[in-house]
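Recall that a protein's primary structure is simply its ordered list of amino acids. Everything else, from secondary elements to tertiary packing, is in principle encoded there. The following example makes that idea concrete.
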Amino acid sequence: MIAELVVEATDGAARTGVLHLARGQVATPAFMPVATRGTVRAVPTHDVAALRAPSGARFEVLLANTYHLMLRPGASTVAELGGLGDFSGWPGPMLTDSGGYQVFSLGPDVSDDGAEFASTYDGTRVLLTPELAVRTQELLGADVQMVLDVCPALPAPPEVLRRAVETTEAWARRALGARTRIHDQSMFGIVQGGVDPDLRREAAERTVALGFDGYALGGLSVGESRDEMLPAIEAAVAVLPVDRPRYLMGVGDPVSMVEAVARGVDLFDCVLPTRLARHGTLLTDAGRLNIRRAEFARDRGPIEDGCGCPTCSRYERGYLRHLVSVDEQSAATLCSLHNLWWVLRLVERIRSAVAAGTLDGLRRTIAAAWAPGGPSPSG
């Protein structure tokens, strides 16, 4: 087994442990920064690798995107340059998304064969099949590759959700048949089903029956509310193997993360921290902070008192507001470093809370700051 999860502590359905991958170990729950084209946008790879939480915890796995890398610079080029790790300078494990999100975001023509796109770079038509997704990811050489799936936007009619489940399962079978790097690259199946708990449970059972190294929940955080999302997660996780990693794709807001962990999820990825940063929105223990606000023009303090990130240790709010206001490129880097560090520390706090049996208290703390006035965490 290439992607074995050794559970070390539990708190209800939540668990913390160590995920063993071909090129290293990952402490879970874990957040994977998104390096779509082989780099986290606006942040050099070595700066992401250097981030450390108070305990010394660091980001241990990055996510890159198959669709973009197969178009530029091309998977064979990445392979010739040593694979994604050497290519990007990342020292640890990596995961590649299959391009399934582009099935959702770019509106391609989806058939039984695959998904046909117009390249975002030059307009060339590309048919991304389950087999091509596998071959491409094997060339890229990440530790984990994802099967190609169909990710419908929500809300969606029942027949659309059913079709997504059926097609995703058929493509998953083809991906398993096309796989050749069995000994040094894990393959994760993807569970679809929208927000219908019964369909999610069925899809999870069918995906588990195929036999993957890990399991992902796709097609969430695509238009539904959190109250709709959480029961769907719970239904799927209930039938996933306890010794395999569970990955919630594309979710990274603090409340959803801690609530998903409470339901047994181990891995997350999201562009939220860096996308917000590029627009001057910063993550703090009290919620979001918009550094563009005029009140910060002469502020001598850091983004957040007590923050240990590289940005807060060197720069003041007034200076950061100036950089953001004049669209200085370094603003995106400095704000992104802060937001990534904050998420890293959040995940560290989640792991510590699970180990101590105090996750419910942390859930209440996060909800109070990030969903004020909302319902108390439950489930």
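Confidence is low (pLDDT under 50) at residues 374-379. The chain is about 40% helix and 20% strand.
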